[in-house]
Design a protein that fits this description.
With about 130 residues, this protein is mostly beta strands. It has one domain. It is built from no helices and 9 strands. The strands form 2 sheets. Strands 5-6-7-9-8 form a 5-stranded mixed β-barrel. Strands 1, 2, 3 and 4 form a 4-stranded antiparallel sheet that branches. It is globular and about 50 Å long. The chain starts with 8 loop residues before the first strand and ends with a strand. This is DUF35 domain-containing protein.
Length: about 130
């Protein structure tokens, strides 16, 4: 997956994001890392995050992001971004699906997606 750190993923087939759980306080964080952002302890364990969640909150990106985002030949199309509640952690993500069908509490699942007009810029998103 171009432009994305492999450290973000527990597996790529099937696609699963990686999180870390602090061995001291139990706090789960994404992206994964050794040091806990909650208690500052330095021992965490990586694990695969759930692939299903619900939209916690969202908004619409109405202008093209900065590089490395590439605007498609057809021009920029607004898209949804938000936080997905995976029950153990909130993950910020692009949200796929009709904008008029999104709402807080909408069930979503993790998918791979192409960002903008670049064929080699693959990312993850959550789809309704």
């Amino acid at each position: 997956m171009a432009y994305l750190s492999p450290e973000l993923f527990a597996t790529t087939d099937p696609l699963r994001l990686a999180g870390s759980r602090c061995l001291n306080c139990g706090h789960v964080h994404f992206p994964p890392g050794e040091q806990c952002p909650n208690c500052a302890e330095g021992e965490s364990r990586r694990f695969a995050l759930p692939e299903h969640g619900v939209v916690w909150t969202w908004t619409v990106q109405r202008f093209a992001p900065k590089a490395p985002y590439v605007v498609a030949d057809e021009g920029f199309m607004p898209f949804a971004v938000g936080y997905v509640d995976l029950d153990c952690v909130l993950v910020e993500s692009v949200l796929l699906g009709p904008l008029d069908k999104l709402s807080i509490g909408t069930p979503v699942r993790l998918v791979s997606c192409q960002l903008g007009g670049s064929d080699d810029m693959q990312s993850y998103a959550f789809s309704a």
